[in-house]
Amino acid sequence: MNYDFRKATTSDIPKIWKIIQQAIARRKNDGSQQWQDGYPNEDVIRTDITKGIGYVLTDNETITSYAAILFNDEPAYEQLKGTWLTNGDFAVVHRVAISDNYTGKGLAQKIFLFTEDLVIKKNIFSIKVDTNFDNIPMLKILEKLGYTYCGEVNFRGSDRKAFEKKLPVF
Fold first, then answer.
1. Three-point CA angle 133, 63, 68, nearest 5°
2. pLDDT of residue 36
3. In this predicted structure, what is the pLDDT of residue 76?
4. What three-state secondary structure class fits 38?
5. pLDDT in the model for residue 170
6. Which helix (H) or strand (E) covers residue 83, if one does?
7. Would you give the distance in Å from CA 97 to the centre of its chain?
8. Domain locations in the chain?
9. Superfamily of domain 3-166
10. Where are the membrane-spanning stretches (predicted)?
11. Predicted pLDDT at 111
């Protein structure tokens, strides 16, 4: 497999939206409440791409996965019920979704590892992320990758677990 991590383009939206819909269905089938309220939707993805924060992981030219990566821009994180590990610049990973054709291949982990490289190149050494209490696959990935539970944040009226990973400074 020849994976590449790149910024998404507007021409990628139909493929990304299909992947998001598959991920929404998987969350529902897993018994999770995450993404069962009309979010994310196609407008959210289009806005991500317009803002330059939408990324795709490709296998050769096939889009396998999607994620949004923001920098120093998550107002909900200012209201953490808990304590972040750091107070400086940070990246946030949101809306991680994997195509049904690529589940079970460790691609969510690859997205986080590519994100680490991207963040370090920008001289940022913290990644923050949140997920639903019942998103067991993501909770396991965050644990495996060394993220630290920091507390809870509230998104759209529900509490979510918040994590941070401090990256090594070279």
1. 45
2. 86
3. 93
4. coil
5. 66
6. none
7. 8
8. 3-166
9. Gcn5-related N-acetyltransferase (GNAT) (3.40.630.30)
10. none
11. 97
Distances in Å between the Cα of 11 and the Cα atoms of 16, 56, 67, 100, 144 are: 10, 12, 16, 20, 34
* Mean pLDDT per 10-residue segment, the chain (170 residues): 93 97 93 87 96 97 97 93 96 97 95 96 96 93 97 90 92
Whether this prediction's pTM lies above 0.85 is answered by yes
The number of angstroms, rounded, from the C-alpha of 146 to the middle of its chain's C-alpha atoms is 15
Q: How many CA atoms lie within 13 A of 130 on its CB side?
A: 25
| Alpha carbon separation from 85 to 49, 97, 125 (Å, rounded) | 29, 26, 11
Phi first, then psi, for residue 2 (nearest 5°) are: -115, 90
Six-digit token pair at 90?
């940070």
Parallel, antiparallel, or unpaired: how do β-strands 126-131 and 91-98 relate? parallel
Cα separation, 15 vs 101, in Å, equals: 12
- Residue 24 is encoded by which pair of tokens? 């929404």
